Hints:
By secondary structure, the chain is mostly helical. It has five helices and no strands. The protein has helices at residues 10-18, 25-34, 47-55, 62-69, 76-86. Helix 3 crosses helix 5 (76-86). It starts with 9 loop residues before the first helix and ends with a helix.
Amino acid sequence: GLELEPGGDREETVRRLTALPGIGPWTAGYVAMRALGDPDVFLPTDLAVRRGAAALGLPTDPKNLDAYADRWRPWRSYAVIRLWRAA
C-alpha cells in the first residue's frame, strides 16, 4: 500500500498518487509537503500562492513564479507557507 510517513520517498509518493483518478500534481505536492514533511515542494498553480506572490511584488504567472522560486531551494515548502500568509 501507499505509506504517507514523514521522510517518505516524495517522487514515489507523487507518482503513485497521481496515478489515482482525480489526484493531480497540486494534491500530490500538498501531500508530500504536509504528510511527508518534504521541505522543498512548491505549488506555483495554487491561487493563494499566486495572490501572495502578487502582494509581495513577485511574478504571478505559474511558470515564471516556479522559475523564481528556484532560488528558495531546498526550502520552497516554507516559501509556500509564507506566500499563503501574504495572500
